[in-house]
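in:
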């Protein structure tokens, strides 16, 4: 398995001095995800939890619905004479009754869900492909519980503490119990890893949970929450307009600017109690 951090030398400068010293950086490497041997996508990620990452990605893209749709997930052998695992190519084998995805459709949908360029078409695509929409989830969360979550996520981000270069995502029960936390150089990868954890542990749909992200609430992250059946998505930074639109249409509670005791609740405020 690849390393999560690496050391590089840097020239540290202040107004009075310049000192050469080693710095700890987060590792960024490509991961090619294949389905039944066919390449689906390549994502730049921090090594670790790659099976969770692949399963979370496939669930949020509508390829699988739960762990039962996956037969196996294995690293692929390299092309060199030693034929060792590369740990940068992962093949997911689907169960016999699960149709393989259309590669072109998957690539195109992933692109639009990242940048939100298609607007209404992207919203409709999520509505049509979601198997676990959160609209009917009766979960409620207290404002005090939400307010305490960012500090708990920050404390759990061990690699961020040494590098300052990672996004974090954490899954909580409605009472604030932390279920899983993952870090990655890509914010979407961190969320996929958390959702992949839920896939692996038979927790899909993620009813009665709160998904917290360390950055902003983009359309892409909102889409992933909807696809996994998360009723409450919270972000410490701002949401995008398309994220709010998708949350509104899907019945997802979207909380942003979650800082201290202050927060903005953009959709389904009935789930947040005082």
């Amino acid at each position: 398995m690849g390393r999560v951090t690496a050391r590089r030398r840097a020239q540290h400068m202040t107004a009075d001095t310049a000192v050469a010293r080693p710095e700890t950086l987060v590792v960024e490497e490509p991961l090619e995800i294949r389905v039944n041997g066919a390449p689906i996508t390549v994502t730049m990620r921090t090594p670790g939890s790659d099976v969770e990452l692949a399963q979370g990605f496939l669930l949020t893209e509508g390829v699988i619905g739960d762990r039962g749709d996956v037969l196996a997930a294995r690293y692929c052998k390299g092309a060199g004479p030693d034929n060792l695992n590369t740990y940068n190519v992962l093949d997911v084998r689907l169960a016999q009754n699960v149709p393989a995805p259309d590669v072109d459709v998957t690539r195109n949908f992933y692109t639009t869900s990242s940048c939100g360029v298609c607007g209404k078409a992207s919203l409709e695509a999520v509505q049509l492909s979601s198997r676990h929409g959160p609209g009917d989830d009766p979960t409620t969360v207290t404002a005090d519980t939400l307010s305490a979550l960012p500090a708990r996520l920050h404390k759990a981000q061990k690699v961020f503490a040494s590098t300052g270069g990672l996004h974090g995502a954490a899954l909580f029960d409605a009472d604030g119990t932390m279920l899983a936390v993952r870090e990655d150089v890509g914010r979407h990868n961190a969320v996929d890893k958390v959702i992949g954890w839920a896939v692996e542990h038979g927790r899909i749909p993620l009813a009665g949970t709160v998904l917290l992200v360390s950055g902003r609430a983009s359309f892409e992250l909102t889409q992933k929450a909807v696809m996994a059946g998360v009723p409450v998505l919270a972000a410490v930074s701002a949401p995008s307009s398309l994220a709010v639109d998708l949350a509104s249409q899907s019945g997802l509670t979207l909380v942003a600017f979650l800082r201290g005791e202050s927060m903005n609740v953009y959709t389904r405020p009935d789930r947040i109690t005082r």
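note: The mean pLDDT is 88.
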